[in-house]
Structure formats: C-alpha cells, structure tokens
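haha ok so turns out i had the wrong file open the whole time. this is the CORRECT one, sorry everyone. sequence first:
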Amino acid sequence: MADMMWAGRFSKQVDETVNAFNSSIAFDGRMYRHDIQGSMAHAEMLGDCGIIPKEDSLEIIDGLKEILSDIDSGRLELDPNAEDIHMFIEAELTKRLGDVGKRLHTARSRNDQVAVDIRLYLRDEIKEIRALVRTLAVTLLNMAKEHTETVMPGYTHLQRAQPVTFAHHLMAYVWMLLRDMERLDDTAKRMNYCPLGSGALAGTTYKTNRQQTSELLGFTAPMPNSLDGVSDRDFCVELGCALSLIMTHLSRLSEEIIMWCSWEFKFVELDDAFATGSSIMPQKKNPDVTELIRGKTGRVNGDLVTLLSMLKGLPLAYNKDMQEDKEAIFDAVDNVKLCVKTFIPMLSTMRVLKDNMRNAAARGFINATDCADYLVKKGMPFRDAYKITGTLVAQCIEKGLTLETLPVDEYRKMSELFGEDVYEAISLDTCVRERKSEGGPSPEAVKAQIAQAEKALETE
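then structure:
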C-alpha cells in the first residue's frame, strides 16, 4: 500500500486486477515530458510565492530535469506497474530528493495536473499534424501546376458529367486541406488556456499565482473557472472533429485513387513502393495504402464518438471516465500522422496517365452542356436548348455517334441556329478553356486558384 500516494484513507491493498484496470501509464506515459514541464512551472511558482522554500523549489526543478534527461536517454524506464505517469514521476522525484520531493504536489491535484499535461501534449501534436497537412497541400498544389492542361472527365453520381482538368480536381483537395489547417488553428487557440491551479475542483487555500504558471507554460491565460478547468475536454472533442475531417478528406481522395488505379479507369499508376501484390494472382498491383487510409478513417471517427459518448453523461467535476479521453485522442492523433506521412510520398511518386484521362473525357457526351450553351449564346432560351441537346444525345446513342461526329445536317434539323462552328464550340479544349468563371477548370482560372492558395500558404 505504501506505493500508492493516496493510501492514507485505505486499510487494504487494492486488488491486483483493480490496479491493472485502473492503471493508465501504458498510454499516458507518452506525456512524461509534458508532465515534467508542468511540474517545473508549478514548482517555480510555489517557490516564488513562498509556499515552499525557494531552495526546495530549485532543487525540485533540478531533480525534474535530471529525471527528464534519464527518461530521454533510456537510463530510467517507465514502470509499467505504476498507476500513471504523474505518480511515477513524483515517486521517482521523492526517491531521489526525499522530503523535498514530497513538496511538489502542494496546491495541486492530479485533476488539474492531467488537464494541463494533455493540453500541453496535444498542443505540440497539433503543430506537427498541421505541418504535415501543409506539406500535403503543397504536394497537391505542385502537382496541380503540372496539370493545368491535362483534361479529364468530371463526375457527378460517378457518371461522366463535364470536362475539367486534373489540376482543377487536385485543387479541390488543396482547399479542403487549407480548411483543415484553419480548424487545427482554431482548436489550438481555444485549447491554449491553463487549468493548473484549479486543484481537484475548487482551487486551493494557498496564495498561488496562476498567471505565472500560465505564462511559464505558454498559455494565453488561466482558465477562469476551477470546475471547468478540471472537467473540460471540449478541446479533445474539437481536435477529434478536426482529425475526423482530415481523414474524411484523405479517404475521399483515396477512394478516387483506388478507382483511378483500376483497369476500368487507368488514370494513374502508383509507384511500386506504394502498392502490394496478391498471394495467388501474379498480375495484381493493389492500392493497399489508400485502402488502409479509407479503413482507418472509420477508426478515427470511432475515436471521436468515444470522446462524445464519454462526456455526454458526466456531472461536474472530474470523473474517472475521463481517463478514457487519452486512448481515444492519442489513437486519432497517431493514425492521422501515420496516414498523412504515407500519403505525401505516395502522391509525389504517382504517375499520371494523361492520354487515358483525355480519352475518357472524349466519351460520355460530357460536352452536352456546352452544346446547349452554344444555342443559348445565339439567343435560344436555356430550357429549349437543353431539350434539343438531350434529343441530339439520344440520337447519337441510337446511331453509335458522338456530338463531334454527328453530321451538321442532323444538328440543323433540330435548329437553324446550328452551324459548322458548333464543332469548335463542343471540342474538349474549348469546353475546358472557356470555363473561365472564378473557381472553374480553365487553365486560366486554375492558375488563379493556385496563386490564391500559394498566397494563403505563404501568409499564414
């Protein structure tokens, strides 16, 4: 029982299965650096406020620095039997400093301690994830620069719809990722308030300086309510939402790459380093990376649901249920980082099969809207032009023709407004080139998008 720092109230040893069930060091051990960071700020404040002797404060800080160095170097291993990372570090400090080490937890609870640890940890993780998402956005943007003239079919309902360029398609994902970065920034901004000093739930009778610890740890300000300080996990949910959206965007692009790699599309080919084969079919080249990303999206979404479900019925303030926040948000963080890190080189080595894209765009009557617009520009109401063009498409299907090969006489039977110039109006290059509206797929419009996105990335 002596190993448990809260043992005074209890007359029996805790059952071993309960100890194992209660222990969190297997997953919160990754926060050792942040736990020590928070403890050093707390110790400095205690000494400056005269709550403990200044020399004890300095000795505690030096002791914590040594423990950090020893863990980093591997000289000190985390004890898997410890209750959590907080108790492990405090016990190690007490073992090294004796009574001086026992002073560290003055005016502090594990409730506000863990609350500050997870904020510090996730704050660092957000920076890393944001940098990865930015790199992915830049990768897509650079690919777009190379394909402003690469014509491909755009789809609705997975049916060929209108001609676009591969650059235009890629830029849609760049804008998604830029929004993802903004969401990470917003989450970090709201997360950056310091719960340290909230105590178990009702603050403390000691004359602490919460502003000092907040500033030492780089927070915007102390959290204004001690109950909220220890029970708030909104930031975990917000981050979970942002991570789920990142994964959703990766999953959507993964789905497209999976289709594009198939023989039915054959728009792209993955580098051999980012594909796998079959154990029985020697011809197979499988896009397993994208399939795994698509699958892991469900896992990250599940982590978000775990967080929401954990919080929905909790009264204030701290409850042990909240220990479940870490495994869920850590899993989401780990999987997003893994997926983005893998996605970047996979995309940058992917081969784009331009001719196949263009050939697909040449089929499926994706210039039908342009045919209708041709009549509109000559004075016909759009709905009449729409009906005529639909009739022409039906005739082409019946005769095995395309709008490009349908004789002009057949056009004129439907309307005298048709002339030989219709073929130029419905050519793929014209269809793409003339879609100059802001945000459209013309090379001119896409280059403007690229410049806009580059500016956003440069000025952030």
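The first strand starts at residue 151 and ends at 156.
again sry for the mixup
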